[in-house]
Design brief:
By secondary structure, the protein is an alpha+beta fold. 41% of the residues lie in helices and 24% in strands. The strands form 2 sheets. Strands 5-2-3-6-7 form a 5-stranded mixed sheet, sandwiched between helices. It has a two-stranded antiparallel ribbon with strand order 1-4. The radius of gyration is 20 Å and the shape is elongated. 25% of the residues are buried.
Length: 201
């Protein structure tokens, strides 16, 4: 038997308010929100934005959960590359999307590999700027694992640059954040960046 989740009065009121705002947006754009194609648009937009910004309801401790394990003496770099990410630019509320490359050097603990994309999701599913997103991912992993070092690179395409403004479709933004050995030791940092930017086969 399928259980239908309860919807709180507060949530339903908030959704109704959001739908009214979207309806008014359509009117301001010169559209008729009562025409067939737009009749359900306020509902769809409210649900869509709730999904796209669900990171506000998530926290790192919860997504990592019991996914921490003894490293059993492992001290070599662990890296997960090409983690897909989708976010929303806080300046124009247009999407940006790309990939994150995350590495760390264990200091007694390792984290389940599936948890790294989940950490990315916590911060990507919010209104963001890429620079802050990159730093937040690095800081979160540093706080959870207390590793010898952390490195994060994010490369993304921004629709606020591609669809409007300068309209440059092929420009890609790259940001990085390093902690611990990745900052202090040049060889470690170079190894990380070489792996992050190595050609895809």
């Amino acid at each position: 038997m399928t259980t239908i989740p309860e919807v709180s009065i507060e949530t339903e009121t908030s959704n109704e308010e959001f739908r009214d705002l979207v309806r008014r947006q359509l009117e301001l754009l010169g559209e008729d929100p009562d025409r067939e194609g737009l009749r359900r648009t306020p509902h769809r937009v409210a649900a869509s934005l709730a999904w796209l910004t669900r990171g506000y309801e998530m926290d790192v401790a919860h997504v990592v959960g019991t996914g921490l394990f003894d490293s059993e003496g492992a001290t070599n770099m662990v890296m997960v590359r090409d983690i897909e990410l989708y976010s929303m630019c806080e300046h124009h509320m247009l999407p940006f999307f790309g990939k994150a490359h995350i590495a760390y050097i264990p200091n007694g603990k390792i984290v389940g590999l599936s948890k790294l994309p989940r950490i990315v999701e916590v911060f990507a599913r919010r209104l963001q700027v890429q620079e802050r997103l990159t730093e937040q991912i690095a800081s979160a992993l540093d706080d959870v694992l207390h590793p010898q070092g952390v490195g994060v690179v994010v490369e993304a395409y921004h629709l606020c640059m591609m669809m409007r403004g300068v309209e440059k479709q092929n420009s890609k933004t790259l940001t990085s954040a390093v902690r611990g050995l990745f900052r202090a030791d040049q060889k470690t940092r170079e190894e990380f960046l070489t792996l992050a930017y190595a050609p895809r086969t």
